[in-house]
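Researcher: Here's the sequence for the chain we discussed earlier.
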Amino acid sequence: MAGENILVVEDDSDILELIRFNLLKERYRVETAISGELAIQSAASTVFDLCLLDIMLPGLDGLDVCRVMKKDPRTALIPIIMVTAKGEESDIVTGLEMGAEDYIVKPFSPKVMIAKVRTIFRRKAAPEITSGRPLNVYDMSIHPGRREVVIKGKEIDLTYTEFQLLYHLASKPGWVFTRYQIVNAINGEDYAVTDRAVDVQIVNLRKKLGGYGKFIETVRGIGYRFADRELVEME
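Model: Thanks. This is the structure I predict for it:
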């Protein structure tokens, strides 16, 4: 049953009302903000389960708001869906790099928006790979039940998508997956995403894994795989 509290940040009154109306129809609770400054104030003082965040805002834009929210312990765990204008792929990539979970491109169908919202809440309620077996590969422990990655005793902080991505690749070393196979495995079929967005997630994951990022190999012209052999030298 719905009832989750959602913050909608949008300065266009017509779009704001469209989003609000459709979320209320699904029995979500909705609060709104028309600027980045108001959004940050509201998010810091109220418990939200999700934020729909427009990129083009007066004053602080959506990317600035995302950056502030992800750095504040009070708001860092709120999933963010970026709302962007068509053609703003660079902003989508930047938002994902900052920790946004997803994005919607204007003009959008209310059905698509609701589907993405439901996907976020399904993840929070019952992550798909929670029941998967723990993996121990190359001194790396990946535990889906605890959603924990530990390398030589050090826990690695990953976003939901980064964890899903690592687990999916590491569970089948040597198998090559296309970008769309990866997206389908993590988010479900027919999930709208750009090739560039997948590549950004891979880059971020490699950075967080340090020298162990080498185990995530690029297969030129196809996609990615997790190495099925020992790497002699680690950086």
